[in-house]
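Example 5.3 — Putative 4-hydroxy-4-methyl-2-oxoglutarate aldolase
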Amino acid sequence: MSQSTPPDVIRDIERVSPELIAQAGKYPSSILADVAGRRGALSSRIAPLAPSMRIAGPAITVDVRPGDNLMIHAAMAIAKPGDVLVIDGKGDESAALMGEIMVSQCMAIGIAGIVIDGAVRDTQAIRELGFPMYAIGANPNGPTKLVPGRINWPVSVGGVTVRPGDLIVADADGVVVVETAKAPLVVELAKKKLADETARIEGIRSGTQLRPSWLDGALRKAGVLAEGETL
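Solution (predicted structure tokens):
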């Protein structure tokens, strides 16, 4: 008995709740990466067009051939408000995959942001629009619209596997991907991590804790200090 082949375009995906997205968006990407096991951060090649840009939302994953944006247009047609387009452009910088026109359309749809492992153009106009766009570079060359790809299949972007619906949080430091199933716990852990780091900074600034409380123990464990010895 033959089995049907899964479609190249998957329209329905599981998304994290809007409430969880709102909570996650309050935390720095560094906090979320730490509590997620220091994993999920994309390569620093994928950077915001402006440091003030931030993103929080579920991933719509897009797999394209280098220099072709046909499937990005298709993804925009099925995306819902609040979604984040995460595009595996294969790291190609020979042509821009998106520019001002497509970004304007994304804004009208209500898309929360875009992450591209590839190049974009019209960067000054996009900065002025204030739309969150993360990419590896800019190129004035336009793309083709000829080659099929896939939507809402797992992709590899910036050295990280991204699955449809995964939580995407991005800021000036970069982009972090949190698996959908782990997102509630990661956001819960982020609250405590941020409180601990805030207290640590306050201790440094007040002069009451000028070095980490764990330092001597870590040095003993590493064999740098003898048992009972301190700095």
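Remark. DSSP finds seven helices and eleven strands in the chain.
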